[in-house]
Specification:
There is one protein chain. The protein is an alpha/beta fold. The strands form two sheets. The chain has a five-stranded parallel β-sheet, with helices on both faces. It has a two-stranded antiparallel sheet with strand order 6-7. α2 (60-67) runs parallel beside α4 (94-119). The protein is globular. The longest helix has 26 residues, at 94-119. The protein has helices spanning 25-30, 60-67, 84-88, 94-119, 151-168, 176-180, 212-229, and strands spanning 4-9, 49-52, 77-81, 125-128, 172-174, 204-205, 209-210. This is SGNH hydrolase-type esterase domain-containing protein. It comes from Actinoplanes campanulatus. Residues 7-185 form the SGNH hydrolase-type esterase domain.
């Protein structure tokens, strides 16, 4: 079986923070890194082509206006990671966060509408919830950021909008937020820079980025969403 897999979105999808080429979430979904994840050998997309359009720092408007226009072929599978950078732009400001959640909902509607118009109803589109490195505390010590007690509530609101988008457009939902709970500040220091820490319970680096173990878990969440679809 062959097909075209397109990865849209932000740094949750890319290789940069997971240790280099082939180690990010989209790369692992496409081709497993057997040395790191031997139990996942064979759970990938042999013969498929990966087109990675996700970019570091991308906001939803970038997905809509810069990434989608690059799609010149009809994909057979799409994963989307978006919204986290939009919310980070409002860090610490509850009023601004409310506006961001509304904007993500509106722009995300454009993303999913255009994708469905391109792919038709049969293509699996996987929408990904946004994780919380504070593990619900609103604080990541060592990050240099002040506490934001309301932050986890706005992450939940954002994820509610992403889930609603997926439901309206017949997309799959990969609940990375739930999967990552307990693997941020509870497990170690998300602000550390190492992409491959010795302790595999910590899934973040650079505060908000997925390290190698986090990238694997995002891939696993996508795979499980696809398996639920059958």
């Amino acid at each position: 079986m062959t097909g075209l897999y397109v990865a849209l979105g932000d740094s949750m999808s890319i290789d940069d923070y997971a240790g280099g080429p082939g180690r990010g979430a989209a790369s692992l979904l496409h081709r497993n890194h057997d040395r790191d994840f031997a139990d996942w050998a064979g759970r990938d997309l042999p013969g498929w082509t990966l087109r990675p359009l996700a970019r570091d720092g991308a906001v939803v408007a970038d997905v809509l206006d810069r990434q989608l226009p690059q799609l010149t072929e009809v994909p057979d599978l799409v994963t989307v990671t978006m919204g986290g950078n939009d919310l980070m732009g409002a860090y610490g400001d509850d009023t601004a966060a409310a506006a961001v959640v509304g904007r993500v909902a509106a722009q995300g509607e454009g993303v999913l509408s255009r994708l469905r118009a391109l792919t038709g109803p049969s293509c699996p589109i996987v929408v990904t919830t946004v994780y919380d490195p504070s593990d619900g505390t609103g604080e990541v010590g060592g990050s240099g950021l002040p506490p934001w007690p309301g932050g986890p509530r706005w992450v939940a609101a954002l994820n509610g909008e992403l889930a609603a988008l997926a439901a309206r457009h017949g997309a799959l939902l990969a609940d990375v937020h739930a999967r990552f709970r307990g693997h941020g500040v509870t497990a170690g220091d998300p602000a550390r820079a190492e992409p491959r820490p010795d302790g595999r319970d910590l899934w973040f680096c650079g505060v908000i980025e997925p390290n190698a173990w986090g990238a694997h878990q995002i891939r696993a969440a996508w795979w499980e969403a696809l398996e639920r679809r059958g």
